[in-house]
Design the sequence.
């Protein structure tokens, strides 16, 4: 049985969502819907408050789209698909080329929206946009990516494959990458010939709204890209609506497993990236300065709100002696509003997220971990009301502790110690997650042993956050994904398309001669 909406709200699918019933329209700015090529105000009376996480200022009200509005989005996408699927791959490639140029020229605008709504530092927000832009650039190569196969199987008979779009596909996005994750989804989907219904996070939909208008400017026709908003009701609609053939999701374990279960039960293709517990292994022969700087950035950047944050550190043998120096480097990081020019990390997304992170830190202390650096209670000058937690480091952590077992999603680094590389590999392989891991070493033999024996989908060797570029795919594994096709790259193309195999007989004796044409052939 599916969980009830109330239980989902309590179970961290949509943590800390404040919904207001407004009988009279508020004077606060409202986020619009984008359906069938038009921006318009929702007719709902249910609104979700979006506050600047650094100041608590009310930025906008995000609508819980009405059932009629959600239906309109799906029907618009379905109607648009009939024509869009017939466009040539060269036409769609031209749209991708124009879209990537527009995103690049509007990078600051997108980053400003991200910093305002999500809180990450402005340079980090630009990186958010850039990593998504790279997927769009890769989508410009779709004429090659969509090529099929052909084989003569008999006299005058050929068998060949055609890669075709699915129809209407949907994306359900998390708060932590407001530009990158949507750009993992809709450009590749529509470039292949699908139409889309996107649901950005209700915590920071501004970047997706900007991207929708840029896509329109790039030539995406009405109905091909639609943006709806909301919480559980919107998620359930996407899982249930018969027009929608596939769902892409990035977010929490509870939400992803629910969406996968409900979506697949309704016959949909679903890919869902879930939680993570990414380990960094430090060998004594590593480049100490590079390793420590990499660890500080990977653990505390974006306030730890990355599914690929290197949140768990495993010191092997004498490398444990480096821990005090790592603490000193973490102390130098500046915690403040993401718009401040010297900011290293900004606030957490909500007050509730801050409370949860602080409770997990205390649980580590209560269970026997050593608190080497405590980031609780920090109040940056001018931003006393923000959702800030500073860099925090816990040592002497054991695998049975909550801080090890749960994804913290905050600027908290938990440290464990082992005597050998074999013990480190065994520790990581026992963890249920398989999103990413990294090893720091100057030994090629050690690196090779690690990459061959570790059961994690993405491995960094002296690289702290090994997120592949889009010519590859995001290959998180085990408990970090449900569904058998990963995001972007070759598997992304496979997810948003289906294969049709044709066997054709054209008998040579039936050929009819024609006159010669001397004109240059033109492809359209």
Sequence:
């Amino acid at each position: 049985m599916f969980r009830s909406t109330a239980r989902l709200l309590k179970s961290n699918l949509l943590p800390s969502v404040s919904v207001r019933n407004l009988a009279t329209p508020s004077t606060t700015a409202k986020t619009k819907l984008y359906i069938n090529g038009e921006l318009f105000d929702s007719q709902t009376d249910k609104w979700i408050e979006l506050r600047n996480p650094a100041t608590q200022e009310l930025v906008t009200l995000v609508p819980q789209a009405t059932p009629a509005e959600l239906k309109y989005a799906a029907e618009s996408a379905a109607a648009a698909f009939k024509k869009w699927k017939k466009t040539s791959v060269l036409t769609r490639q031209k749209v991708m080329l124009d879209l990537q140029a527009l995103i690049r020229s509007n990078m600051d605008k997108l980053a400003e929206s991200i910093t305002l709504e999500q809180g990450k530092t402005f340079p980090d927000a630009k990186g958010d946009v850039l990593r998504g832009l790279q997927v769009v650039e890769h989508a410009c190569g779709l004429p090659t990516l969509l090529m099929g196969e052909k084989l003569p199987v008999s006299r005058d008979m050929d068998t060949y494959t055609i890669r075709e779009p699915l129809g209407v596909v949907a994306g359900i996005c998390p708060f932590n990458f407001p530009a990158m994750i949507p750009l993992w989804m809709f450009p590749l989907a529509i470039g292949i010939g699908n139409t889309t219904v996107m649901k950005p996070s209700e915590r920071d939909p501004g970047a997706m709204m900007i991207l929708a208008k840029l896509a329109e400017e790039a030539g995406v026709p009405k109905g091909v890209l639609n943006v709806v908003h909301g919480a559980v009701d919107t998620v359930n609609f996407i899982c249930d609506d018969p027009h929608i053939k596939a769902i892409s999701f990035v977010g929490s374990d509870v939400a992803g497993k629910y969406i996968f279960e409900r979506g697949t039960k309704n016959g949909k293709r679903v890919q869902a990236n879930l939680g993570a517990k990414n380990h960094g292994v430090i060998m004594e022969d590593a480049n100490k300065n590079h390793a420590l700087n990499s660890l500080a950035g990977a653990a505390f950047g974006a306030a730890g709100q990355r599914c690929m944050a290197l949140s768990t550190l495993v010191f092997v043998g004498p490398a444990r002696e480096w821990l005090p120096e790592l603490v000193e480097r973490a102390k130098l990081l500046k915690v403040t509003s993401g718009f401040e020019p010297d900011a290293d990390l900004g606030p957490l997304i909500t007050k509730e997220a801050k409370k949860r992170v602080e409770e997990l830190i205390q649980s580590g202390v209560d269970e026997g971990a050593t608190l080497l650096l405590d980031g609780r209670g920090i109040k940056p000058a001018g931003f006393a009301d923000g959702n800030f937690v500073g860099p925090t480091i816990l040592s002497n952590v054991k695998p049975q502790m909550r801080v090890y077992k749960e994804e913290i999603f905050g600027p908290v680094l938990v440290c464990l110690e082992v005597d050998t590389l074999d013990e480190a590999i065994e520790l990581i392989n026992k963890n249920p997650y398989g999103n990413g891991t990294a090893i720091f070493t100057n030994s090629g033999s050690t690196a090779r042993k690690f990459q061959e024996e570790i059961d994690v989908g993405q491995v960094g060797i002296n690289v702290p956050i090994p997120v592949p570029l889009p010519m590859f795919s995001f290959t998180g594994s085990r408990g970090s994904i449900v569904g058998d096709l990963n995001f972007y790259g070759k598997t992304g193309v496979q997810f948003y398309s289906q294969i049709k195999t044709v066997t054709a007989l054209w008998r040579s004796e039936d050929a009819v001669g024609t006159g010669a044409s001397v004109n240059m052939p033109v492809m359209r």
Observations:
- The radius of gyration is 25 Å.
- The chain has a mean pLDDT of 94.
- DSSP finds 17 helices and 23 strands in the chain.
- The longest helix spans residues 67-84.
